[in-house]
From TrEMBL:
Belongs to the sigma-54 factor family. GO terms for biological process: DNA-templated transcription initiation. It comes from uncultured bacterium 8j18. Keywords: DNA-binding, DNA-directed RNA polymerase, Nucleotidyltransferase, Sigma factor, Transcription, Transcription regulation, Transferase. It holds the Pfam family Sigma54_DBD. Residues 201-264 form the RNA polymerase sigma factor 54 DNA-binding domain. It comes from the Bacteria. Residues 1-176 form the RNA polymerase sigma factor 54 core-binding domain. One of its GO terms (molecular function) is nucleotidyltransferase activity. GO terms for cellular component: DNA-directed RNA polymerase complex. The lineage of its organism: Bacteria, environmental samples. This is RNA polymerase sigma-54 factor RpoN.
Amino acid sequence: FTPEQRDIAEYLIGSLDDDGLLRKNMESIMDELAIYRGIYTTEEELNKILEIIQDFDPAGIGARSLQECLLLQIQRKADSPLKQIELDIIGKCCDEFTRKNKERIIQKLGITEEQYNEAVSDLTKLNPRPGSSLGEAMGKNMQQIIPDFIVETYEDGTITLSLNNRNVPELRLSRQFTELLDEHTRNKDNQSKASKDALMFLKQKVDAAQGFINAVKQRQHTLLTTMQAIIDIQRLFFLEGDESLLKPMILKDVAERAGLDISTYHG
């Protein structure tokens, strides 16, 4: 790997889900690399690096679908007639396999029932979630993730969105602090130089604190606006929970839906 290819590989690995699969499309990853890492690459280059990652253990890691995950595991087996049947079942009859349509698979591949049963018995030993074994191995080293948002769905199709208050405690200026500032301001004409310097220092701190609070509130507004845009785009997914309903989505789509400039998400 060149230093840039290593950065790309690390980003791809970081994009794997808990199952160890890469469910993001390459166009989105290309956009993210350009925005967050300043790396401009091609889909061909991403695929080449992903193929190297797919040679890592455990077998099946880095697959872009369940079908590819199973195929990667089968391909590591020693060559045999059974291996070829398994490749054909997953490669050519994956839908039938997931629906347990034995008769259709036997007919389509021209194999015997005995061959089918032997292959399926072996296929059920494959791991559809290779990344889960990594999580178990890491154990206590796994980092707890606290979500920024709470999204709730209801049977009538309503979706509600709120910020997780554990992440955003309410910020406000101390009442005692502001009252002290007001008192000093009212009496500033009769104050000594030291008192006036203290008043100036106090005012600077209050202004800085208020500026920080305003910035946090603006960030919260941007987060909510952005998440609402994502919910609007992926409404069916949030209602049904079916990953096949996820629509391709890049930062530009979210920014346009949220009515924000894409530069809002930089840095």
